[in-house]
Amino acid sequence: MGTQSRGVKRLDIFVLAIGLALFFVLTCYQLDLPGPHYDEAIEVLPAMQILLGQPVETFRGAGLHVGETLLPIMVMDYIGAMNTYLVIPFFAALGVNVIAMRLMPVLFAAFTLLLTYFVARELFGRRGAIIAYLTLAGSISFVFWSRQGIFVTNLTSTIMMGLLFCGLRWWRTGRRRYFYVGAFLAGLGLYTKFIFLWAILAIFGAFVLLNLDRLIRWVSTRQRTMWPASIKIGRAELIGGPAAFVLALTPLILFNFQTRGTVGTLSRNFFTSYYGVNNLAIFDNLGQRLKQFNSVLQGDHFWYLGETFANRLWMPALVGALLLVCLIAIWRRRSEGNAWRKAIFPYLVIMLIILQSCITISALWFTHFAILTPLPPLALAGGLTFIAGKVEKPRFVWPPIFILLVALVAYDLIADVGYHQILTRSGGYAAHSDASYELAHAVLEEANGPTAALDWGIQAQVQLLTQGKVAPRELFGFDSLAEPDPEFGERLRPYLNDPHSLYILHAQGEEVYRGRSVAFNEAVAAAGKHSRILRVIYQRSGQAEYVLVKVD
Description:
alpha/beta; 9 strands; D-Maltodextrin-Binding Protein, domain 2; five-stranded mixed sheet; about 60% helix
């Protein structure tokens, strides 16, 4: 038995090493590409400012005063400052740069990968764990969202898998520490990004739905058929669990005491989001979300890397496994037992997250599904191990399963390599273009006075890449994407009065907030001045991306 146990442990270590090596090769190659996105940079600017001793800018001016330093507690009304603080050791060790910024989410994604292995082993055994682990390691969306993990807050998937692991361990062992840590992780995930509520409700909802028959029987008979005998819910759990949950939410609660930002944003955008999504149009939103989930599953949504690639085998494999699980569970319902509940659990969590995602305070963005990237490999692993375990001669089933898995991983790797090859040529498009590196160099050379950003997607990257030496002010106004607000000219006037002012715009066709270039030229003419272009910064494709302008 000792020799067999050592052999199993060595197999575990070998599989874990292979998966991590594959993942790190795919994620760390040309990690500085594409260029830094605005949403990446904006979250780590306070970390840079803390380390470099610069004045710290916090969202809505909220934060904690420690000496003369104001420490941020949120980066948006619904996104906590977790990435801000987690990146500080990386900046301290490697300097303030894009590689250091992205190594942090890559390492947390690797931790997500490991957690997925252990969650799958708790649910489906060692074979299921290996399937989930290796199919996730090369998963297209998981790989490329890990590289820009701050952009999509991929930390939520790490916390979700940690929550699942703690919940499963508590259910199996009854040890209170898993219960308390799980409750803390639920609160921490909610603080990290408010859409973690989807994960909390989906996990709880899937558990209830799968055990509905047991719950009804427990309510009617009061017999402990709902949970194992090791589970005890007493005063310690009823007090300690909520306390751990609220403890993790303390920064979010403090932020709302200071600003009421989260409460206000949720209430204002509950029925119609600030990007115009009608949250009452559930069926229309669901149709769009299902298409997005399919794209995330097969990895064909990374257009901004230069081209799109896809693994179209994922959806048939995932749905086919689910159908077979349901058929076997129905056919053998009397002798089947409860294994089907574990097999269907990840599928239900996915479905419930997709349903909840139809309601948003922002927009129906692909990036919201970064939280569920570990779940399809977990679901597939559960389905395949269940199927193999219920046939009379499993030795005839595992070979086709093995062929399917090899095909899945191979097609993912082909797409991963394809994305890297095209990214080398393109450098990234639009808001992800690596033209921001050249922009930062140009601004350092040209800026000798106030600097103004006349569109979104400029300020944060310039400030990060110049390490705060240049900090453009955003004058474009966030109220309308289509046209500038009436106060645009007022915000612009002090800059026009200073002949040293430098203006940064997006080139024609690359604007995010429209009409600012026209309004800027009109304001310049009205002031009796004229503008001149200093430099045009191009993407690798030859498309103009940024324009530097001075006014004489």
